[in-house]
Design goal:
This protein is α+β, with helices and mostly antiparallel strands and 121 residues long. It is built from one helix and eight strands; from the N terminus they run H-E-E-E-E-E-E-E-E.
Length: 121
Amino acid sequence: MISRSVGMLAALMISTAGALAGDVEIVGAEAQQSGETWRFAVTLRHGDTGWDHYADLWQVLAPDGTVLGERVLAHPHVDEQPFTRTQSGIVIPQGLDHVVIRARDTVHGFAPETYRVDLNR
């Protein structure tokens, strides 16, 4: 009975580790206001392996979860890690002092970790 429980626990630990492995990591992000819109530069790290598994999107969210803008990443970055991509023209509503960045990959979906960016208005 004990060996069966230990085996089940080991299987659960391996399963959990596999589910967490491969998430996109947001290494950093910067925001710069230009007139009425903002430009974001977001740096990601991910174990891209090719077209079947790569970081494919990052989004700028209001604190309430509203998507304010996003950058679609159209191809894998296997040999470029970490990598930075920018997106301009994002409108940030008045009154927000920060936004949240989240990132996604093609296998695991959105990573559980997000990144807060304070806005200097």
